[in-house]
Amino acid sequence: MHWLPAILTLPYLFMLLSIYRSLLKIKPFIESSTPVTFVSVIVACRNEQSNLPFLLDCIAGQDYPKELFEVIIIDDNSTDATFEIASGYKGEFRTIAIYNKGIGKKEAVRSGVNSASGTLVITTDADCRMGTKWIRTISAFYDKLSPDMIVCPVQIESTQGFFGKFQELEFLSLQGITAGSAAKGDGTMCNGANLAFTAEAYHNNEDNLHFGLASGDDVFLLHSLKKKSHSRILWLESKNVLITTSSSSTISSYLKQRSRWLAKGKAYKDRYTILQGIVTFVTILLQLSLLIAGFFNPSFILVFLTVFTLKSIPDFLLLRNTSVRYDNRKIMRLFLPAQFIYPFYVFAVFLFSLRPDKKKNF
């Protein structure tokens, strides 16, 4: 019976290895076409007066015809000068500043899509930074393959200290799962900080976005599209579209953000996503249980180390692949200590998700 937990870890091993095999098949997209698609860039934001000017300057530097894109900034009930900065920005491209017709990011994105003129919509956040070929590469990918949704890569800014590096490593693992799952045709996650979809796809799936929940504008759209056999959801592998976003400044804000992500999982109906979540949680729960049991019965320590190794093998392969693709090989130095900390981190996130939170988060 002592070794039963090791057997229960095998589903995690096989699932992550399957995702890793899909990562190995990903090839970088090379943009070479002439721009033809009109693009609407949507930025939903609240109290972003310090970040918004930098984002707009990044967009102003895009290597894409100014007449072929617009930027729509949706102010979600800000109490600072966000709207004034958005409406007063002077650039060569069309900038539209509007107020959110509801409350929360999900409603803000809907307000933006409803105001968009573009066939293709790209969403990002005010604290994101991108290269000059961001719009051009996404548009070229759409022109070539005509997907309903394009899942694009995101990385968090590099910061000093173990907490900052732990965030980087965990975010890389999420990106690896995001890319690998999408590449194998069974996407489970995406990030609204760097996501593209057709306006038609959004409107056709708008009823499935769970507007009663504060977050999930991105993942619920992906899951809704997956239900339709004719829909195409593709991963875009290109350093030209890699976006950098801010990391959490405190452990409390980090745990709160992750707990919001976990809370929306209660509304998931996609089978593969649910299965992935259950298998991962069970594996982590086994690790914690065996570690605690080892303090009372030393014979469980060997079982814990076996389960730890079985979980670490696919984790290492996935993270090594992703860290190489993101030119962040040095982060792997923290892999082993992060593996020991990760079960406690997940448990902390779980506890945070159980806390009552009457405040609607952006």
Short summary of the structure?
With 362 residues, the protein is of the alpha/beta class. The protein has helices at 4-8, 10-24, 52-60, 82-88, 105-115, 134-145, 161-183, 199-205, 219-226, 251-264, 271-296, 299-325, 335-353, and strands at residues 39-45, 69-75, 94-99, 120-124, 149-151, 154-156, 195-198, 233-235, 243-245.
- What proportion of the residues form beta strands (DSSP E)? 5-15%
Strand numbers in spatial order across the main sheet: 3-2-1-4-7-5-8
**Which H/E pattern describes the elements?**
HHEHEHEHEHEEHEHHEEHHHH
Total number of helices: 13
Q: Main beta sheet: strand number and arrangement?
A: 7 strands, mixed
The whole-number mean of residue pLDDT values reads 91
**CATH superfamily caption of the largest domain:** Spore Coat Polysaccharide Biosynthesis Protein SpsA, Chain A
Question: What percent of residues adopt helix (DSSP H or I)?
Answer: 40-55%
Between the first and last Cα atoms, what is the distance in angstroms? 46 Å
Number of domains: 2
The low-confidence parts are none
Query: Do you know the CATH architecture of the largest domain?
Result: Alpha-Beta Complex
At the third CATH level, what is the topology name of the largest domain? Spore Coat Polysaccharide Biosynthesis Protein SpsA, Chain A
